[in-house]
Design a protein that fits this description.
The structure is a homotetramer.
Chain A (H helix, E strand, L loop, with lengths): L1 E5 L4 H11 L5 E6 L8 H4 L10 E2 L7 E4 L5 H11 L3 E4 L10 H7 L6 H6 L1 E2 L2 H8 L4 E3 L3 H15 L6 E8 L14 H4 L4 E2 L8 H11 L6 E8 L6 E8 L6 H11 L6 E3 L15 E8 L4 E8 L3 H15 L16
Parallel strand pairs in A: 1-2, 1-4, 2-3, 4-5, 5-7, 6-7, 8-10, 12-13
Antiparallel strand pairs in A: 8-11, 9-10, 11-14, 13-14
């Protein structure tokens, strides 16, 4: 099975290359990248010296492709691939939202293929495994939505959360990508913590879309505030919501364990999770608890934003699409410390 | 005016020494520290080579003392000083709570001098300037309470917040002190973010005590979750609360600016604050905003936990107690980047 | 093949567990650790939740053991294992030096089994593959010696270096281990760089012993200064030595490439190596160059101190001892960024 | 006395603004910066909110100016200022080298005013105080040269070093400036250490020029290798050189203490210095020692690259030029931890 990566030179692309190289059932056959076209992959990324591939301007002959382009550009690349019968996992936001006008509102462009939005599977296997398996096009979730939805899904589904939700996320700087910017400049980001996108982050509609699917009758009012913390990888998400009905801590943990009993990458933790406990791996640690003074549900999740939040989840989706065990090539333990 | 520091060898003690050395109106005359007694201050802390003092086991003759001891031990040291007529700024939690039984509940000890709890001023000058000025004993606030209370006080006072409050704080590791511990071990804390004290942090009763004083009729249900992020200094606090009555962003900012118009160290920021923008300084940046999708108030504050969250605020209190301008010796700008 | 780890709770022990779990040809069967005896491995190290083992006080039935104890204690544990016929890779320094009196000089103890010093193989496969393969006891090299010797060996062997050698190493903080200490306390190590052990680091005799074996006639005068830099993993070593005979850069690179042509984990790099390019992997990048103004040889190497500098190299040694391909279980690419 | 800063928006410019604001004897009267012209200083740099100045395209009326431009552009700005009689401290390299052809060789441009090279004072007050005081134009040293020259000067002057010198420097990332670049991108620089400029760094001719002035008869062969380590501020420089004549450690320290007896910012340290011990201050810690196994001199220095390595030293020079005590406005203690 031949696999391609469109735009291998961003952090998600390069992480896909790392993980696919270690995958026992597929061959990384073609990688593209405009600025670096013509160079060998190992010249641009010395840590990938084990992979003998040249970065090309155009994708070669593959069975399945990962598109790791910025939004808007990705749709343009993906549509012709689908027409050629190549299955695609799109890492961008271009096929995540089901409602085309949302693209105008949140991303400022008119979606070029609204009919594909319904067809695309939202690539969170823990919620959409059945749709992902046969899909021609899978929209890989955003990093923040992955952490937030996995933290909240069991509680929303069980109608424990019906109204107010606060999602406070802390992300490592690699989430800002490999493109240069002042907030990702070392001397600005080091020894600093700050919130951003207070006017509304583009990952919010993704989060609300998925939570509403879990309980269409709930009137969820979600506030989501992302923060940048000085580390390279990892997202810790702390969610707060009043409990619609009282729950004991033990019952809550059971409900979560039951919800995720078939999810090999989600683990309900016994102690507050650390992002370091998932670094480099596709795990998501979830820790549900109750603030007994206020009866408020507090759920914390930890992921590696470049693995479960991007490249690892994309390969998990690929595994499902190819009929492989979900965990194939993703078994590596986290790198600690 | 001769000043002393009890337990100069912790991070708050050493920061007090740094700031007092630069204070034009007082003399740092005596410093104590059990483990390092007999050594010169510059031997233990080479960055303080400019200060010519020996660490002693017992405090010398001073007019005012800072007690930078762990809780419970501090009260034992402070009481005899007060009896000798020495004014004290206590950095520990031992005189912060007005209600003696709270010490049993949160700190596990029976308070040795409950009568002093009423007498002690809570050393947040922005709220208690009039009580601090004549006080014999000032209880310097905790680092988290400083950031949280300054973020919320104007809104609580104006009755914009009457029920649910979520406080999500992100602290640098120096907040854990200079005593060795696994969570503060470099290889554990670096490249990591995690929540802790989910069962209830000791700074919570301080926060609720002060917020209730601002609006005794409100039934505030406060959830406070502290997090450790990989930086040395700084606390960013993000507060969430439904607005009791709709407010425009502009009105909100005006309300905050008005509340802090006489507070030289609190600045209502025009953009989300960064902890780096206050590093090394006594500033607190506050950024109130409204999540227009949910009508929820979101307020963010940034402080340096060792300055406005500890040593700087203690000196601000000392200035008031000595009748000096509040900003004396604390004018240094933040160190950026 | 059943494998054991003595003292799994240090950073080398836990890294051994991570790597052995992913090894396709051996079973991690028994792990010990005094302080944590009785607990499950995943309780102490949540990132190892995939491994179902209980930490014991005593080692179970194994074919080969890794001893990850502090020096002096290790010899005591290793000797009875050898007597039982269990092959051992010792991570400590206890069998690295061939000359027993050196233990008195550098480590302050009289070696309990000097006869084993000659018998033990020095576990740097790139130099001692033939001795390691049949060995009962392999002394795994120190982290600094691994980086320094691999950087210098081709030049010493080729008699390009015959006298002065300066080795300036920069290490991440995990090299200081998981035991708490002030230099490894987050707030001390973060935003800091310093040299240490200027009076002579214990890794120096190891470095000189191995370099002398490569050219017994040379009179090498080695100065080695280790530094601590604020990162968790990685050692960058910069070596300086006058060239005994002029060499062109191209010839030098060829000499190095030839020396390491059968070494799967040593790569002669085309650009100055970054520690990030080897993070989590068993690679050693070596970059030899000539300062054309002074004719001085400058060689830089990069390793992950916990992998090629400790646990990975130990498994590389185990592979040789068990007749497995040297790279088995160690093929994972570095985790970047 | 009115002071101006040309190009306030880089890290040196903004650090000059911070320090000058706290200077009791001068007024920061005018600041320029092309990209940010028209904005208030506090809008671009919120930590400078205490300074009420607008960034202009052209410098206003001042008595002395700091030019914090990139090399080549700086000379163009400085020449007309000098013609107007404004004294200048130039932070760039444009007037540091005495020999005009060196600019072609190292910087690739033909110097526009070679006659000024002899006239300019090299602004290292510890070596050139007498020339700086009356100078119209002072060339502020590079950050690496400051650390290296201060480490080596006493030994070179005393003829203890006459031939081989190795200088291995470790710099924080702010040395790369505020302009965006991949090596200074957070995710690339964090958890990484690497050498760079192995073909020859532009600070090398500055170092050799100054060392030769101290002992014109010596044939110094200097190798200088800079490294980037993951911290914002600080340079640690480790220097290695064979001792021309044997010295006892104690004699060496005395020689250094004597050399720097009138230098208020250089302190001969009793233990290996840490960059953290000088953070935010104008101090340079120097630690000379002898490797007793090889008789080699090892000297380590620590500075804050943005203070003693740039803005602080520039103000020290200004103080001398204005007849003020050298330490005026630079007394702040380092910020630790």
């Amino acid at each position: 099975m031949k696999i391609g990566i469109i735009n291998v030179t961003g952090y998600t692309g390069v992480e896909l290359a790392r993980l696919l190289h270690q995958h026992p059932q597929v061959d990384l056959a073609s990688v593209t990248g405009r600025s670096a076209a013509g160079k060998s992959l190992s010249e641009v990324f010395p840590h990938l010296a084990g992979i003998n591939l040249t970065i090309k301007a155009e994708l070669g002959d593959v069975d399945l492709a990962f598109a790791a382009m910025p939004h808007k550009e990705s749709a343009r690349e993906v549509i012709p691939l689908l027409e050629k019968g190549i299955r695609v996992v799109d890492i961008s936001a271009d096929f995540r939202l089901k409602d085309a006008p949302e693209y105008q509102k949140w991303y400022g462009f008119s979606h070029p293929a609204p009919q594909l939005l319904k067809e695309a599977a939202y690539g969170l296997p823990e919620l959409h495994r059945a749709e992902i398996t046969p899909a021609k096009l899978v929209a890989n979730p955003g990093c923040y939505p992955t952490g937030a939805i996995l933290a909240l899904a069991p509680a929303v589904k069980a109608k424990l959360i019906e109204a107010d939700v606060v999602i406070d996320s802390k992300s490592g700087v690699s989430g800002a990508g490999r493109s240069l910017s002042l907030p990702a400049h070392y001397s600005e980001a080091n020894e600093d913590t700050a919130a951003y996108a207070l006017e509304g982050h583009r990952h919010l509609p993704e989060i609300t879309q998925e939570l509403k699917l879990l309980n269409p009758k709930a009137s969820l009012a979600v506030t989501f505030v992302p923060h940048l913390v000085p580390m390279t990888r990892g997202i810790l998400t702390t969610c707060y919501a009043p409990l619609a009905s009282a729950k004991k801590e033990r019952e809550l943990k059971e409900l979560y364990r039951d919800f995720y009993k078939d999810a090999p990458f989600v683990r309900v933790a016994d102690a507050p999770p650390h992002t370091k406990q998932v670094l480099g791996s596709n795990l998501c640690l979830v820790y549900p608890t109750v603030d007994r003074r206020t009866g408020r549900l507090v759920v914390i999740s930890a992921i590696d934003n470049l693995v479960k939040g991007a490249a690892g989840q994309a390969i998990q989706n690929m595994n499902l699409m190819l009929g492989l065990p979900e965990t194939t090539g993703l078994e590596a333990l986290p790198v600690y410390p």
